[in-house]
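User: Earlier you gave me the apo prediction for this protein. Now I'd like the version with MTE bound, so I can compare the two side by side. Same sequence as before, with the ligand SMILES added.
Assistant: Got it. Here's the input I'm using:
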Amino acid sequence: MACVPETPEEEKRLPPGQYVPRGRPVVHYGRVPAFRPETWRFQVFGETATGQIHEFSWEEFSSLPHTTMVSDFHCVTKFSIMGNEWGGFPASALLARVPPGPGVRHVMIWAEYGYSANLRLTDFDRPTTLFATHLDEKPLSAERGFPVRLVVPHLYAWKSVKWVRAIEYLTEDRRGFWEERGYHNVADPWKEQRYSYQEEPGEGPP
Ligand SMILES: Nc1nc2c(c(=O)[nH]1)N[C@H]1C(S)=C(S)[C@@H](COP(=O)(O)O)O[C@H]1N2
Ligand SMILES: [Mo]
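And here is the structure of the complex with MTE:
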């Protein structure tokens, strides 16, 4: 494994304690789920503005406006994958389509098999947060999250939930899968927010 950035410019984009491996590792907990377009549904639930659950079929979901974005990807186990070209639609498009209620400050991202990650609404609503269906102009491979994953490039990559199936709007914060298991609630790689013991007051649920 090469453990150095390829260019000085890449070096500047590398958060503290991270390295660039050769190749692009695939990381997840548990098995790769199958995708069945006829029965696949995407739910937006919790504190929606209307009080109703909103459900998308794959056809509706995949017809949201498409865009591309290049970003880096930082796993808390210290490797970074630089310069990924993701295609999909911004999380802000989903927020516009299914507005959250006025008290919503957090979201829970839910995946197949119950994997989850929580985000502050301000992190979810960043212009760089994307629901990605494509990587480098090709549909995602099964193990990278096909048919759709979230990409939150400014936070550690466990927040970039693969095989995403639902968003829950929350008025109060709640910990997701890794956040419950000792990882930092916020997860900013530039501040090396790796573990929950580093949390400052106000950075996590009580
Ligand atoms: N559904 C789901 N999404 C997940 C994970 C997981 O276990 N399940 N692992 C996360 C972690 S820890 C990382 S580093 C990235 C890895 O993404 P990659 O396999 O495309 O490199 O996916 C994240 N998304
Ligand atoms: Mo990770």
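For your comparison, keep in mind: The longest strand covers residues 80-90.
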